[in-house]
Amino acid sequence: MNTEDILHQIMENAYPSSSAFDDALSSFGGSRDVFSERFAKEVARQYLRGKLNFDIADSAINALSGWTPLEDFSACCWAIYRAFDEGEYLHQGQAAGTNEELFTRPMLKKAMAEFFPDEAS
């Protein structure tokens, strides 16, 4: 199991279990923190490139936060989580359907530039 397998499960409407993340971590061979950052980065990258829609990407980050509790998130994971979280609801005075463009995309671009400057698009 790897990141793509977890994303595929979510696309098939199957919320991944902790064991799916455990298996992916085992295949990855690194630390939980590094795996979580790479998973979050991959979700953000695919979303920004239009390969994942908001609902799938948001579900993936929420699933990650169920496996790696928010209090254990690195600054990178937290920034990506917050970007999707801000897109989940309307803010005061905000027009419906503008969450992604007003909050999620700009916050993700900022996080990618800050944490992965060589890969930011």
> H/E element string?
HHHHHH
Tell me the β content.
Answer: under 5%
**Euclidean distance between termini CA atoms:** 28 Å
Characterize the biggest β-sheet: none
Question: Structural class from helices and strands?
Answer: mainly alpha
Unreliable parts = none
Determine Rg (CA atoms, Å). Answer: 14 Å
Helix content: 55-70%
Alpha plus pi helix count = 6
Averaged pLDDT:
91
Let me know the number of strands.
Answer: 0
Q: Tell me, briefly, the overall form.
A: globular
Task: Report what the structure shows.
The chain is mostly helical and 121 residues long. The protein has helices at residues 3-11, 18-28, 32-48, 54-67, 75-86, 99-115. 66% of the residues lie in helices and 0% in strands. Helix 1 packs across helix 4 (54-67) and helix 3 (32-48) packs parallel to helix 5 (75-86). It is globular, with a radius of gyration of 14 Å.
Secondary structure: elements and pairs:
Elements: H1 3-11, H2 18-28, H3 32-48, H4 54-67, H5 75-86, H6 99-115
Helix pairs in contact: 1-4, 3-4, 3-5, 3-6, 4-5, 5-6
